[in-house]
Amino acid sequence: MASRFEASCPDGLCPGWSVILKGETPAEASKFEINFLCDRDDRIAFHFNPRFTESDIICNSYMANHWGQEERCNSFPLGIEEPFQIEIYSDNDNFHVYIDETKVMQYKHRVEDLKTITKLQVVNDVNISSLEITKKNVY
Ligand code: GAL
């Protein structure tokens, strides 16, 4: 049930691109991750990590070989075996996260050079029905 999706967008995903993941969590789901990765240094600009064991969504960045300070969503609108839609897009200042069209999180950019954010990854306990990456006019 470990699934893995990766897309490479050499011109950069931030700001201005919207990622829309539609899926469902499998029966024994423990956690899954949506990661916005940088093209060098193993950096994770944005790690979005719903944990079903804790009913919490943990957000963080991985830079200079360690995790930074965690930020948590104040709601957990995901259920086991329930379909969901997660949209993440960024402007110059923040990532914005919507679950089923309700905003759940705003995460201030920690990576300074947004152009280096070129990879998207979805891993672990999630059945992906579709994943769209589309240009969004944020200005
Ligand atoms: C760690 C976990 C990582 C990541 C990180 C976020 O405990 O092993 O996968 O989720 O927390 O702060």
Automatic annotation (TrEMBL):
Record keywords, A-Z: Lectin
Keyword Membrane: no
The organism's place on the tree of life at top rank: Eukaryota
Recorded GO MF terms: carbohydrate binding
GTP-binding recorded as keyword: no
Galectin domain segment(s): 5-134
One Pfam family per UniProt: Gal-bind_lectin
PANTHER family: GALECTIN, GRIFIN
The protein's name in its UniProt record: Galectin
Species: Sinocyclocheilus grahami
Organismal lineage: Eukaryota, Metazoa, Chordata, Craniata, Vertebrata
GN (gene name): grifin
